[in-house]
Amino acid sequence: MSDNPETHPQSLLQTNSESQRSAKNPHNPHTFVTAPESKDSSSSSKTPEKISPMAHRRLTWTVALALSFAAPSALFPPTALAQSQIQATQVSGAITGTVSDPSGARIPNAAVHVENDRLKRDTVTDAAGRFSLDLPTGTYKMDILSDGFEPFVREGIAIAGKALKPLVLTLPIATSNEIVTVDASKLAGTGADENASSLVFDSKNLDTLSNDDATLQQQVLAIAGGDGQHPPQIFVDGFSGGRFPPKSSIREIRINQNPYSAAYDGLGFGRVEILTKPGSDKLHGFFQTQGNDRAFNSNNPFTGAQPPYHTLNLDGNVSGPIGKKTSFFLAGTYNDQQNNTVVNAQTLDANNNPFTFSQAIPDPQVFHTYSARLDRQLTKNNTLTSRYEYNQINMTNGGIGLLVLPTEGYNNSTTTQTLQIGNSEIIGPHLINDTRFQYIRTRLAQTPVSSAPTVIVQGVFSGGGSALGLFHDNQDRYEFQDYLSIDHGKHFLRLGIRYRLLRDSNLSNANYNGQYIYPDLNTYQITQQGLANHLTAAQILANGGGATQFSLTAGQSSAAITTADVGIYADDEWKLNKNVTLNFGVRFESQTAIPDRSDPAPRMGFAWAVHQADKHPAWFVLRGGFGLFYSRFDAPAILSAKRQNGVTQQSYFVQNPDPTVTYTPANLTGTAPTIYQIDPHLRSNYDIISGLSVERSLGKIGSITVNYLNIRSVHQFVSLNVNAPLPGTYDPSVPNSGTRPLGGTQNLYQYSSAGEGVGNILFTNYNLHPVKWFTAWGFYVNQHAKSDAAEPGGYANFVSNSYNPHADYGASSYDVTNRLFTGGSFNLPKGITLEPFFIARGGRAFNITTGADNNGDSIYNDRPAFATDLTRASVVKTSFGNFDTSPIAGQKIIPSNYGRGPTYLSLQLSLNKSFKFGPRRVEAPDPSAPPPPPPAKGAPTPKPDPAYELGFSAEGQNVLNHVNGAIPIGVLTSPFFGKSLSLESGFFNNSAANRTINLRAFFRF
């Protein structure tokens, strides 16, 4: 099948917004590094469906609740609101520190409680005795409890819009009659976002992940995993659609929290929330350089000699105060990646003889990012945050690799500017309102290396000019959020609205150069030899030559669309008692530019700490949930339907074209153009998801969780040719044969919602810190998913039989049966740390096709049948089975994605060492805070850390040098069928080497 970008537009990354979070009880030992101290409700978006009168009444109730932002006291009078505490989500400062015993040994799992007259926060120390709590402006009291130690109390800790200097706290050993008999850290939290399957990576434990930003992103997305049906969603400071920030600018990453929240458009499993660093109360800075060179790396086994390549990354940031109420954070990154891409194909030489083309082609990328963030304490209860980011990426020789020859490359430049503004206001002792706005401006310019016609020989090579052509895309994305949190006795209520708008102004002459498709190299060779010998078209065709299809696009190249979506939600977290929490919510979504605009989505969940009492911990925590989750219909399909309507732009398809004719729009006027449209009966895709999980605390050494999810997908997006020849009426040897339901020979491509899918997923994760020098975490997934839609967001994926979409029901392309990700940190002698990260993944599914258009629908995705007569010339014998490329009556077509690629194994190791030096700065005492307690008898007085730190690290990716092949070629007529021709790109940021070593140096003050 041709990959005309106008015909089959690529999916846009669908991410959505984060909202607020309130932290309830969380003496929770389960999360990695530190328990989530705040409850983040986030919003996201998904797609529509018709609603009943009862649903309309639910919608009216939901809208009424959302509109109560303007007058919250109308729903909750002050007398009712004065019954409990509210937890803020937008932070204006933080309390961090370490907890040790008198000998200096760190104390893990100590319960840390902070409160004032407006809110309460709880967390526990990690395996290294560290803790961190984000807090709004105010003065707080801190309590720390741990078995065998006296309670620690400090009052008058002031937060004034900036992070405090880390506290160094020592707990005296308790006397025999003062030992705490119940460790609060053993109490299991039942809050909606205290699920132990979540992972929280703070700034320290991000070190267990790669220091290379591209590899870090791949690792985080892999860890998030998603629900199997959808790719993970990324939210940066609560907003969707943002770019993954550099690691040095990230304060914290939260993964898979609060899975069934109505505040989210998508399931919480697979949700990645990234919080960037705020300013600080003192001047601080960080600068680093890292990179690698070919001399450090092992060879790519899929190519020979390569041009020189290297990677250089420069990164730095500075933060500090501006007056007493404002802080800033400035950051910049420059990355020069002189990489190579590998092409392995077969083509014809100058004498039209076949030869193997294997070459490494330079495809350098240079990108740089600059960002600035300001945090301003407007009033005692009001915090304003603003962030601006500028990012530019320049790429040379894009689109090349595998079977794509260098002539089909392109150069492009993408510039993205992001502006975020957020305001968090504590309205009263029990209400918080967060208002946020984001604007993303993206400008993309792309130029092809060649404008010659594209030539595709199925499974052999793709050459000529680039089918993408000249391309300019201007996107403007706007996002507005308003979220309200209300603490009302045993009920914690969240209400919110998110509105997103996209304007896309696009200029594209994709496929204006034309595209020829040949079924195999022999047919292409006969054609080229015939043309060189000046044979007639009839002679070339009689010899077995000639393309099977020619396509050409003409007409107006520019088009613009505007589409918007809105999500409104209300959610009630009801603390039934100390062991049971119930969650009920409803979300309503709608999107413009599609027929279906009403999407009600009920949600519910529960958590039960089984057999938990004041004097003993829970046996385990049982959680479950149910909900409907919608998917948004992506903008590229809307743009194609508007532009390629047969009038604004014409797309011509010619079967078995004359090999001696040069086709132009002028001599194609008699050919009916192909039309793209959105099905007038299109329904919004939604998933019915239910799940159950069991969480077991392992005491002070960690926790383990097992989760099960069942997913039923309804109205999945696919593409059909609704005027394809009726089954059994098309003869491949007779061009334009077959009976079409609408008459003529015109193709009518329609974006439809005819797909369905089912998934069952079992996943487990563990967090362990058995000793103070070792921390480990892991995530294992066993998944089985089947679907009619070949890909996630499959609006651009054509079914193989437009009259029976369910014929494609089979393994989803993202169905990887087994996946394991595990990492950790070892504190070695001499201050050296070792961080391993291991990935093991089963083979990915891939489709096996005939390389021909067997049914005349103009789409090259037809699958063979299981061979019943091995003597037929059309039978191909492979290691995957014996297949018949020209199916006959009675033969069974093989399932979709019948093939399986190779497994993936990779071990990453990072070795780090830093040196601290310089003056030990003593901060001026806060006059409002009492003096710190004296150290225990015989214990040394803690000293402040030195002002400067110099560090070095070496990071090896795929250190075992295991060869991880990419998905094999699936075209049966290809000489490469079943073979991997390149390295798998996942979890690796270098296509030129099989193993790399990155060296890094940094300086911090």
From TrEMBL:
Residues 1-53, 920-947 are annotated as: Disordered. It comes from the Bacteria. Residues 1-25 have a biased composition (Polar residues). Signal peptide: none annotated. Its main location: membrane. InterPro entries: Beta-barrel_TonB_sf, CarboxyPept-like_regulatory, Oar-like_b-barrel. One of its GO terms (cellular component) is cell outer membrane. Residues 41-53 have a biased composition (Low complexity). Pfam families: CarboxypepD_reg (PF13620), OMP_b-brl_4 (PF25183). SUPFAM superfamilies: Carboxypeptidase regulatory domain-like (SSF49464), Porins (SSF56935). It is found in: Cell outer membrane. Keywords: Cell outer membrane, Membrane. Residues 927-945 have a biased composition (Pro residues). Residues 595-921 form the TonB-dependent transporter Oar-like beta-barrel domain. This is Cna B-type protein.
